[in-house]
Amino acid sequence: MSIIVFGSINIDLVATAHRLPIAGETLLGHDFFQAPGGKGANQAVALTKLGISTEIVGRVGTHFRKELIDYLQTAGVKNNVFLDETVSSGVAIITVDDAGENQIVVIPGANGRVGQEDVERLSQLLPRKQALLLQLEIPIPAVVAAALAAQKAGVKVILDPAPAQALPEELYPLVDILTPNEVEAAQLVGFAVNSEDSAKKAAEVLLHKGVKCAIVKLGAKGVYCATPTESFFTPAFSVKTVDTTAAGDAFNGGLAAALTEGLSLRQAVTWGAAAGALAATKSGAQPSLPDRDTFDKFLQERVGES
After folding, report:
1. DSSP state, 152?
2. Distance CA 36, CA 69 (A)
3. For 97, 116, 192, 218, which has the most beta carbons within 10 A of its beta carbon?
4. Of 176, 249, 291, 293, which residue is the catalytic one?
5. Which stretches of the chain score pLDDT less than 50?
6. d(Cα 182, Cα 111) in Å, to the nearest integer?
7. Could you tell me the residue ranges of all domains in the chain?
């Protein structure tokens, strides 16, 4: 069995500084580097690094296209990527401070052109896939159409509702697992989500909207997970944070990898938390994603399982 990802493919342009700038301020930074990113590509690479056969459907444009395709291939991701010659590839401009916190501006580029033609390519690949991973760096109508196609094909839908935005009500019942962080959860439910109690309330709202499983990521505070039949809280792994970029993508990769290997939902959430923690210890998006040996060693040391 394998997993398919439908989503964004970006180039990340990253600047580091002592702190994040305020409006109208110019700061002198430490460093600059370029790395492949995009939430769709990040999640696909996260899965392949954990040993899961993964394919991605998406678009790149005229700029950075060779680098982006080469990196996916080097990482072992099977790709069904369309070259859109009318627009640039997606670009993320990222500033990271000394505490590892970030500010990100995403220019969609080719990702913003993802539509029905791409959904049709995806639909042909869905049979025999165990799960479809979705995010929100492509147009919402394409996300809804992809989720509907997966439901018709009997494929589990895992949606990372990032970047934060409202979702159409018809999307919720198509989602098997929804994985918002604090900001995204607050956007979806209309109240602040910053504790285990508020995460529980948010999960209840999301289940009522129709999702089958709500996983609310609270960063260093941990993860709250709820389904109609069970709920639990998983503490975060304590690590020295360098850069939180792609930590959420690593979480979804770890979660989906565990489920693909037949582990329980509780184990899958632990895998997600471990992968996210490891990603936060390194700079960059895809370069920070852990390989399977590193991941297994971390789990063995922290929780005694692999």
Report:
1. H
2. 9
3. 218
4. 249
5. 305-306
6. 25
7. 2-9+38-88+111-302
What single letter denotes the amino acid at residue 49? K
The CATH classification number of 2-9+38-88+111-302 equals 3.40.1190.20
Amino acid symbol at 68: L
Q: How far apart are CA 102 and CA 156, in angstroms?
A: 31
pTM above 0.90, yes or no: yes
- Residue 249 appears among annotated catalytic residues: yes
Distance CA 86, CA 259 (A): 38
Q: Which residue has the tokens 């934060």?
A: 164
Quick check: bond before 163 cis, omega within 30? yes
Per-residue pLDDT, 304? 58
3-state secondary structure 203-266: HHHHHHHCCCCEEEECHHHCEEEECCCCEEEECCCCCCCCCCCCHHHHHHHHHHHHHHCCCCHH
Instruction: Identify which of 290, 287, 289, 251 has the alpha carbon closest to the alpha carbon of residue 271.
Output: 251
